């Protein structure tokens, strides 16, 4: 029994505490049977595999003492290995977008080309989802419509997007989402906000491409560490008949744990949505969040007449005809005139159209048609991700009818930060003007962060040297060599002394790397040890002239500065045509290392300055200028609350600084796990806590507002 307790198989009450492999169970039972190391440990009837014939070749019912000692050692060893693996973080770094050596980025480019040329306009997974559905009534398709939340008196739910870039940032947000309640600071007050019953994720689940490895390591792993899936759940299991409810539940309305619904983003579409379908629509758990979702788009009927439309806009930022048919018929048959709708898409076309001056030729025309002509004022809020910051634009009162009241983008779920200051304070959409009410980070902070392109570009993107140095050399190699530069130092002006000084330095440098310097050194050594010139002449004669020639060229190959100087002198005297192809290749190969050392820091500095000027002065390249920084900070998500009176409260919670060092949370470790207990029922559901500045302690509210459902008026706190 004490052996079983040591292995964690049972507690004092006899309840199984942790999962352990059969081999370790076998060793533990063997240890528990033992009386002493010198006496027979048990009987072969108890465990015939470990009987003496297996070792000594003799017949006996006794288990070998040697085997028992081995079992004890194996038990301790494997337990220590298992414990070390469980207590080791496996968070990945932020994606190096400017790396010239990343296979992931080349695969991303290839997948994007394939998606655009093959899938887009030729094969659409959304069309297949619709045609494979059994029902032909768009408003009653069970695979797309979920109404199990609709009878609750009040309802909390969360929204996040663009997660799973770096592990630290993704886990920080997931840890906040997993807590039973958060005390978020707003001004000088602490506002208690309970965990959402529903988690909406707005796409881009893994960077840079939607591979199985990226989904598992960058998306699922941080969420599983923040809120563990049930102990009986097999991660390899494919859910073919969703929803696969936990044991003891027969209807989605009975299950009171957190659930998650997800729409794909552009990065999820790079492989034609294949990985998204396998991991979202054919899996039942995202950590401790239950996933009943079957398709890539859906409609959720929430309490008090609220709805969420999760749209899949694929790579061209619009819904297809089958999707339009489903939502238009749903509006006709299910959505009442007094209801309110939240439309969720991946891309915030209202901001991007304004930024690219596409207001007269807006993207997402089918989405706009659905909102303006079918919802006709019932869309109170649009939410999206894609841009990795938080911004809210609210409608300015006018005579035009209000198609949408608020436009909200929050893509701070874990990806690198995007700027806010490059986007206009006023934008036009749906024949109305919208004004910026909140931005995170602030415009001022956003400008300051852009300065890091000058200071930190090479530090964050040192692999860019492979690209930058090569490109610069290709652009300038035809200029080598530059001859007749001595006239620069021939000057009789007042600055002559200074020029003479630099001339002396130059001469010293040329002497150091001068003509045949390495071979001349060898000749001095040779004269010292073989002083007789006749002997050297005979050696040259006996070797048919190979002796000095081979040594000369061999040392020239190792003496790179000499190769450069000799070849340069030859080129300047006789022209480039005088060199053979091999000599020219040798010359450029000699120049390249020196050019690399001198040019790569300059290349990174020039490129960083270019990005800084573009982003802060010209408001261009917002994606390129901030992806270079790989900034994991300024993370946020939005928590929404449908009150009993039907009004919608909206809070955006944020942390300025993302921790980089974590320890196993002692509160999580000490909390007793009961049999069949779900992780969301724990007071401390997350495994890791930050060593310094834990997000739970630093979380704050950066924006809050209320949508009053009764008279459609907005009240700002």
UniProtKB/TrEMBL annotation:
The chain crosses the membrane at residues 585-613. It comes from the Eukaryota. Coiled coil: none annotated. Residues 170-389 form the Calcineurin-like phosphoesterase domain. One of its GO terms (molecular function) is hydrolase activity. Keywords: Membrane, Transmembrane, Transmembrane helix. Gene3D superfamilies: 3.60.21.10. The keyword DNA damage does not apply. This is Calcineurin-like phosphoesterase domain-containing protein. It comes from Ambrosia artemisiifolia (Common ragweed).
